[in-house]
Amino acid sequence: MMKTTALIISFIIAGFTLSAQEIKCPDDVNVHLFDLDLSYSSYGSPTINLSGPYELDKTVTIVDNSCVDRKANINYKLEETNTGNVYTCTQTIHIELPTLDDVIWPEPSITLEFGEPDDLKPENIGGPEPAEFLDGNSTILTAYEDQVVESSPTGPYKIVRSWTALDWCTSKTSMFNQVLKINEITNTALGVTTVKDCNGNDVSVIDVIVSTDETGFAVDLSACDPSSGSLLDFMNCVAANNDISNNSSFKLSLRGNDNYLDGVSTLDMVISQRHILGISPLGSSCKLIAADVNNDGRVSALDLLIMRKLILNIITSIPNNTAWKFINENTLNPNISDLNDKDLDFKKSEFPLQSLDIIAIKTGDVNNSASGN
Question: pTM for the full model?
Answer without folding.
Answer: 0.39
